[in-house]
Amino acid sequence: MLTIASGNQHRFCDGVSRRNFLQIGALGMGGLSLPQILRAQDLSGKQDSHKSVIMVFLSGGPPHQDWFDLKPEAPAEIRGPREPIATNVPGIEVCELMPRLSRMADQFAFIRSIVGAEGRHAAFQCMTGRKSNRQPQGGWPSLGSTISKLQGPADPAVPAFIGLSPKMRHSPWSDAGQPGFLGVAHAPFKPTAEGKADMVLNGVNAERLDDRKSLLASLDRMRRQAEVIEEMQGIDAYTKQAFGILTSSKLAQALDLSQEDPRLRDRYGRGSTKPAGYGDAGPLLNDYFLMARRLVEVGVRCVTLAYGRWDWHGKPHGTIFEHEEEHFPMLDQGLTALLEDLRNRGMDKDVSVVVWGEFGRTPRISPKVGRDHWPKVSCAMLAGGGMKTGQVIGSTNRFAEHVEDRPVGFNEVFATLYHNLGIDVNTATVTDLSGRPTYLVDPAQPIQELV
To answer: Which residues cross the membrane (predicted)?
Structure first.
């Protein structure tokens, strides 16, 4: 959460506490201030290239056999009520609830054969590509943290790694990616850590974020306050850079969706901040897709977001097919709008998009009319990044129980994303807490069908 708080100690004439003013929000990073984080981040290598990744985490695990690995010839208790529809790529079919995707299938690569899932409800494996049962001291760093370490920010006023995942009652689903042994300097910057409704910029809450005039006035006040403090007390370069990030017109404007044409926001679908489904769910907030595009456009290298709640075991919380009728059309709208927008702006070759969840769902529909956890096989969609799209990679048997050909590991997907960023996983390393250079993924090559 970005909060500029005022306290009671050593107030200046404008009522702002110097201590609180310099500690520009803990950002959920163990209480470190943003200037401290930037100071640590200064040790990172920085490059001029600007390729980006947007990772969409479908928290709970989407049903692969109801999405784009449908089995229409299987018995009813396997196939369910979903019908496949043809796409603009001959031979590729997707769920009938995703007509927009069917018209843009040539821009996606569909992986039906992801293997190696741990079977636990957490974003960890999708964020790191690693197994959690053999972590080094400090833990494995996430994709965004590794990119931050290796490439640094593309713009000094824009963080390299931003997490848009909203807060959820089941916190492992809202994990935007941890820095692990790379340290807090490479943790994600979280402007919407508590959900858009809790974003605060010096008194401007989310309801007023849509009022651009109020937002810009607030930022102007912050800049004036910074100038007063610098003149009276002096602040170091990292504190100045912290204010640069928090008051940067680039970052502020990227987060201000009111600047977009309302027709484009409608194309994305806007969505809702309310939990999707039940209980511990995240929202179907399609504004996050648009915000992700705006963030990579101004220089963010990695954006992660969690979308919806895909853990559908059935009654008494509603059948899996009831939830699909809510989730699939919203994902269909937001995701295709993102790809269309990137392409219209000439960004599709520079921005890689990956969409996946922590595991698949059981082939057989349960008596509660749900599908349970199924780590034996899951799926993913990739797009952009200059990849060879319009194809299906891998296949499962006739009941979608296990991989029949071309198994793809989490590490191979990560190797592909790094490749798209210009990072060679065969040579690039990061140093762990023992001082030992560590490769970015378990031994793997980029998916050759894509690159």
So the answer is: none
Query: Does the pLDDT at position 111 exceed 60?
Result: yes
CA dist., res. 157 & res. 168, Å (int): 29
Three-state DSSP class for residue 379 = strand
d(CA 200, CA 70): 44
Mean pLDDT computed over every residue of the chain: 84
In tens, the pLDDT along 415-428 reads 999 999 999 999 99
Of all residues in the chain, what percent carry a pLDDT higher than 70?
Answer: 76
| 329-332-335-341 Cα dihedral, nearest 10 degrees | -110
Residue 124 maps to which CATH number? 3.40.720.10
Q: How far is residue 190 from each of residues 161, 173, 220, measured CA to CA in Å?
A: 9, 15, 22
- pLDDT band with cut points at 50, 70 and 90 for residue 2: very low
More confident residue, 11 or 304: 304
Q: Is the pTM of this model over 0.85?
A: no
**CA gap 111, 206 in Å, rounded:** 37
Is the residue at 258 inside a domain? no
218 occurs within a structural domain: no
Determine, yes or no, domain membership for 184.
yes
Q: How many residues would you count in the chain? A: 451
Apex CA 35: angle with CA 30 and CA 38, to 5°? 90
The pLDDT of residue 213 is above 80: no
> Is 232 among the domain residues?
no
Angle of CA points 400, 404, 406, to nearest 5°: 120
Instruction: Report pLDDT for 330.
Output: 98
Rg for the chain, CA atoms, rounded:
22
Structural domain boundaries enclosing 77 = 47-198+264-439
Count up the domains in the chain and report the number.
1
- Residue 184's closest CA among 43, 288, 5? 43
